[in-house]
Amino acid sequence: QSQVIFRWWKISLRSGYQSTKPGEVKESHEDFRENSHLQIQIALVFGARILDYVFNLCEGRIDFLERLSDDLLTNIISYLGIEDIASLSLTSHRFSKLCTSDKLWEPIIEASGEITPAMKALAQDPSWRQKFFIRKLHLCKKQNQKSQADSQ
């Protein structure tokens, strides 16, 4: 049976606490959801975010994406389309950071084969994402101009 285990140690210079031994509380998930005293202790020590996380674990709601490393998530995101990356970036602060990072965009742009070493050397200031979208905007603008010229 799964349990929530809360351990603590009292550290104090006061003589009255020197003989205090570590404590431990083990509760089933069901009992934990009903133990407001333990919930308050966890919130005080670790914060409301961790308390929510523990509640979700007790209820079987585990956010597996939250547990993945940034490098692994960046690798997964690199397989998405541009529109999907833009949508994903709106879901959380963490995904916003990952979806706008040079770590994501540099390999995407280099894999497109459109960036030569000379272009890469010239474009050190803007981020990889900016280079990618600027290039796409220029291509769209040229296509629109060509379409307008062809229709006349």
TrEMBL record:
InterPro entries according to UniProt: F-box-like_dom_sf (IPR036047), F-box_dom (IPR001810)
Entries under Pfam families matching the protein: F-box
Gene3D superfamilies named in the record: 1.20.1280.50
Protein name, UniProt field: F-box only protein 36
F-box domain: residues covered: 62-108
Stretches of the chain forming a coiled coil according to its record: none
Superkingdom of the organism of origin: Eukaryota
